[in-house]
From TrEMBL:
InterPro entries: AB_hydrolase_fold (IPR029058), CarbesteraseB (IPR002018), Carboxylesterase_B_AS (IPR019826), Carboxylesterase_B_CS (IPR019819), Lipase_GDXG_HIS_AS (IPR002168), Type-B_Carboxylest/Lipase (IPR050309). Belongs to the 'GDXG' lipolytic enzyme family. Pfam families: COesterase (PF00135). This is Carboxylic ester hydrolase. Its EC number is 3.1.1.-. One of its GO terms (molecular function) is hydrolase activity. PROSITE patterns: CARBOXYLESTERASE_B_1, CARBOXYLESTERASE_B_2, LIPASE_GDXG_HIS. Residues 3-476 form the Carboxylesterase type B domain. Keywords: Hydrolase.
Length: 495
């Protein structure tokens, strides 16, 4: 019989067993990144004597509450710069060598945690005989402030601390997961939004090679990284706001957490994120993938039909917008592409078209690009689209961003979920299909299940895509209309 006390490389951990699932929470995988370790690569954790309690979650990474994340149930009641901890769920701490799934949470690189209600690994453990790991990593200014060009070698990788934290967590998995009943040679990394973008970066991140065997990307790909010049400009703006001279960067280590958060809070969305720093990330991950950095990694990747709806439905700019206002919003967002969009699209400009084009631009197109690059390497790639529409807010959100998460995790009964998904019993039907597909992919690199129609690998001739809904089906090139508008407009811009 498995025990709740497990011996890790760094010391013994006391977990708990609930309904046949064992869990260990708040396990340190790196030293606290505080004081002189702020803006530095993570270091190995210290060992401890005796048995460490691992029955409650650690604080989440330093962050401010964002309204959208509050809606998703993100809890920021306990935040700390000392946040580099992970959590494990397993059917048993034995020698069974089960598939391992390591989750990287989303939140635009500035918010979120590995301890959200939706990310409870119990169902994966019971239904899939899988070991699940969820992690925290440094966010925002603490995880992605690129000081390399300003402060030199000492800060060379500061713009990728958050990604280096993820790598440190994967190293911990390699060293320790066998003691928790997992197989270190069968690790799937998966994430959503900024978590999926992180997975995309890790596919092209040299120090992550060999630490995982499969990858799942939900609503994110490998496109979202900053060139060093852009990241340096952002860092300069933060230093100016903090009134810190480039010659005195060590002062950054002494500032209160709140002061750093406030300075970064005024930045536009996604200003802080992974950086092509020339050291930890030598080149754009898409380029690395095109050159074969992940050629042996099976990939499952997809998006939601109406990703952008949640970002625009509550935007006051759209409230009662007349034709002139709609045109102004398009021009502000798309600039010189507006007349081209109008030429390629017979419908009048509308919020619906706006949402469709931004869904394609930010989410679907990068996913298809990654699928293409990885497929060209001969790696198996499967594409999906989540089409089930939530009835909340009179159906305005449709199949929006992040909606698939509690379906993938089979956590529809968790707190804060019904305010996003509604309460209809039919939801479970969709969850059963997705949950099993993810389990099968983690087990053997193929998401096909008995409950789904035959799901072929992605290719550029037909672009077969599994459409998840009450009646799931494979559709070839389901985003063709919007993709053609976007590709044609972009080609005209290049010419």
């Amino acid at each position: 019989m498995s025990n709740t006390i497990v011996e890790s490389v760094y010391g013994k951990l006391q977990g708990e067993q609930i309904d046949g699932v064992y869990s260990w929470k708040g396990i340190p995988f790196a030293k606290p990144p505080v004081g002189p370790l702020r803006f530095r690569a993570p270091e190995l954790p210290d060992s401890w004597e005796g048995v460490r309690d691992a029955t409650s979650f650690s604080p989440v990474a330093a962050q401010t509450q964002k309204e959208i994340m509050e809606f998703f149930g993100n809890d920021v009641s306990n935040v700390s710069e000392d946040c580099l901890y992970l959590n494990v769920w397993s059917p048993g701490a034995d020698d069974k060598k089960r598939p391992v799934m390591v989750w990287i949470h989303g939140g635009a690189y500035v918010t979120g945690s590995g301890s959200g209600h939706w990310y409870d690994g119990a169902s994966f453990a019971t239904k899939g005989d899988v070991v699940v790991v969820t992690i925290n990593y440094r966010l925002g200014v603490f995880g992605f402030l690129h000081l390399g060009e300003i402060g030199g070698e000492e800060y060379a990788t500061s713009g990728n601390c958050g990604i280096l934290d993820q790598v440190a967590a994967l190293h911990w998995v390699q060293e320790n997961i066998a003691a928790f009943g997992g197989d270190p040679n069968n690790v799937t990394i998966f994430g959503e939004s900024a978590g999926a973008m992180s997975v995309g970066v890790l596919l092209g991140f040299p120090s992550a090679q060999g630490l995982f065997q499969k990858a799942i990307l939900q609503s994110g790909a490998a496109a979202n990284v900053h060139p060093p010049a852009t990241a340096t400009k952002v860092a300069g703006a933060i230093l100016a706001a903090l009134q810190i001279e480039a010659s005195n960067l060590s002062k950054l280590e002494e500032l209160p957490v709140e002061q750093l958060l406030q300075a970064a809070d005024v930045l536009p969305s996604m200003s802080l994120g992974p950086v092509i720093d020339g050291v930890s990330l030598p080149k754009h991950p898409q380029l690395a993938i095109a050159e074969g950095s992940a050629k042996d990694i099976p990939v499952l990747i997809g998006t939601n039909k109406d990703e952008f709806n949640i970002f625009s439905v509550f935007d006051p700019e759209w409230k009662d917008a007349d034709e002139a206002k709609v045109k102004a919003i398009f021009e502000k967002t798309f600039g010189p592409l507006v007349p081209l969009i109008a030429n390629f699209n017979p419908e009048p400009l509308s919020q619906d078209l706006f949402n469709k084009l931004l869904t394609i631009h930010i989410f679907t197109y990068p996913a298809q690009k990654l699928a293409e690059l990885q497929g060209n390497q001969g790696a198996p790639v499967w594409m999906y689209r989540f089409d089930w529409e939530t009835p909340v807010f009179d159906g305005a959100l449709k199949a929006t961003h992040a909606l698939e998460i509690p379906f993938v995790w089979n956590t529809l009964d968790k707190p804060n979920t019904t305010n996003f998904t509604g309460t209809s019993p039919e939801r479970q039907q969709v969850a059963d299909q997705m949950h099993q597909a993810w389990i099968n992919f983690a087990r053997n690199g193929n998401p096909n299940t008995d409950a789904l129609p035959s799901w072929p690998k992605y290719d550029l001739n037909f672009r077969p895509t599994m459409i998840f809904n009450l009646e799931s089906a494979v559709v070839n090139d389901p985003n063709r209309a919007e993709r053609m508008i976007w590709e044609q407009a972009a080609m005209v811009m290049k010419s």
